[in-house]
Amino acid sequence: MRKIDMEDVPKISVITSVFFVASLIHVPIGPTSVHLILNGLVGIVLGWRAFPAIMVGVTLQTVLFGHGGVTVLGVNWLMLGGGGLVAYMVWQLRHRFNHPRKEVIFGALAGGAGIISSGLVLSLALVTTGEAFFNIAGLALAAHVPVMIIEAIVTGACAGFLMKTKPEVLAGQLPQAVPSESVTAGSET
Hints:
CATH topology: Arp2/3 complex 21 kDa subunit ARPC3
Radius of gyration: 19 Å
Helix content: 55-70%
Structural class: mainly alpha
């Protein structure tokens, strides 16, 4: 946290707010509920700072609305924040490829990876609590598949849009080559 530049605080705050609002809207499916998480989007914009940003958002949801509950706060941090970090790692792989739509492709992959990794942590947490939760763990993971598809589409579209409009917002963006001018101003004789 000490290495966060003051210039990045507004960006972190806005992205945390987007995460907070998006993940408040729950859709019940069987014994569980699903909701947009956008931890993939948080990961591709904030990079490693996704984890503390998601921690703040989840904590505020718990304190203000009772979502999740205080006793599972650490599991929720790991599940959602870890998904943001997985998404960031997937996003970083785009530098290895030379494809005109690589930001859209890897944005979509990052969005999907963030959700599926969060679903896996949730399922693992349920399985470790006892045999009674084995079936629910499988249902919870299956319920995240449609969310994974939606988040992949949303994150891919956002990555493509941000790459065209404001690429410096995206985490881990390599510096763009500055075209040199053949004649500099004032060099004419």
